[in-house]
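Listing S7. Sequence submitted for prediction.
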Amino acid sequence: SAIFKCAEEEATRHLVRQYDGLKPLVKLLQELKNKQLLAAATGAIWKCTLSPENVKALRELKAVELLVGLLTGQPEEVLVNVAGALSECAKEANNRVTLRKSGGIPPLIGLLTGTNQPLLINVTHAVGACALDAENMVIIDKQDGVRLLWSLLKSPNPQVVSSAAWAICPCIEKAKDAGELVRSFVGGLELIVGLLKSEDQEVLASVCAAIANIALDEENLAVITDHGVVPLLARLTVTHPVNRNPRKTPGLAPLKIHDPLRKHLAEAIARCCAWGNNRESFGTHFAVAPIVYYLGSPDPLVHRATSRALNQLSRRAENCITMHQEGVVKLLIEMIGSTDEVLQEASASCVSNIRRLALANEKARTAGAA
């Protein structure tokens, strides 16, 4: 119990491993009759798994197999801890295989039908981590796991909603026919688009990430476009602004940065540009100018997603004009010097599109003058 309370700190987790504290904790997992002791042991192990080094050590101690055995017939206090520990362990590929071979996925899916909020949050994280493995995803699909995750998007608890949306992302990525799977949920696409009206940052970030995956299927992209995904995404670029370049906008008060949201929002916008007049619609809904300032983020992953979005948007002349007015060229030229090839290519392509438009305008003016 003391370890459970103290292991929130990384230093404590390190000390537990350093002084061989993990082995007796794992041994306590076999004390099935003493539920209070079992709850304390599983809680301590859960907190210890927050350190990757401990996850490796626990794998060697066969802890995953023992934890899987505790997924049934235990009080909710124990289940919350077990699911939390497995969610952290499943971030490692070897443990995902062990979890599958130990028969852990079906009982995890079964726990998605409960009502205990902390348990639902931990189980959704665990299922999402398991879904990173294609073979695991086959089992999740057969167990109707994706539908159960989708149903949790209706939860009034924003933490449950966000954890479910995060779990849906790898499910879409690894499912064999993800497009058809998503379409099989009646009202599912309308539901997830509607969640873009949330005011919760984590819900918005997770839903944007899910929409970015959904948009890879053309038919589903068409459907979410009909449900108004473009104006809702555009609204977020303005509703949740970022720090602007003080040299360009002197006297502007610092604004709170939401980098996780910006990254997934930019990615969603980039992928939603692939349908119909969506590029033009993003410009019409004033989404282009705010995105330029995302390049001022200190997070290189935000830079990558933003450059991809700007590259897609720059295929419309009106958007190029807006970007140029906001001083995007200088920022993109800096990005071209990045070691990230995706960022390099997207930035270079965007600059090329802007330059092409400028040359066309110059040519037209010269012809008119002649």
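Caption to Listing S7: primary sequence and predicted structure tokens for the chain studied. The chain has a mean pLDDT of 90. The longest helix spans residues 341-369.
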